[in-house]
Design brief:
By secondary structure, this protein is mainly beta. It contains one helix and eight strands.
Length: 110
């Protein structure tokens, strides 16, 4: 799927349906305008007070303003392997610091 937020306050939500051996493409994530990326009930055993978010979420820079979002649902790469769920295009901001995204609210785990 190709996802467009366009004008206004948008959130790109990933839930269990994201793990279908395909990935979405986000065309216009705007961290100043949008809620950002929301992980909805997919991180097994994740606790915001004791877990390390980078055990579960990895974002890699794959080219000019392009990033890939990987999720490891259990944070251990044992029961679930890391899976690419999205490519983010046209993103001038650096997305590779997942902890900073979580701290700023640009990444939410619900």
């Amino acid at each position: 799927d190709i996802l467009y937020g366009q004008a206004g306050y948008d959130a790109f939500i990933f839930d269990a349906a994201a793990f279908d051996s395909t990935f979405d493409t986000i065309q216009d994530l705007n961290l100043l305008e949008d809620r950002g990326i929301v992980l909805n009930d997919i991180l097994v055993g994740y606790s915001p007070t004791t877990s390390v978010i980078t055990d579960y979420v990895i974002i890699t820079n794959t080219g000019h303003q392009q990033y890939d979002l990987y999720i490891d649902r259990d944070g251990t790469d044992l029961a679930f392997a890391s899976e690419k769920v999205a490519t983010i295009l046209n993103m001038p901001d650096d997305l590779t610091d997942v902890q900073a995204l979580l701290n700023s609210g640009d990444l939410s785990v619900i």
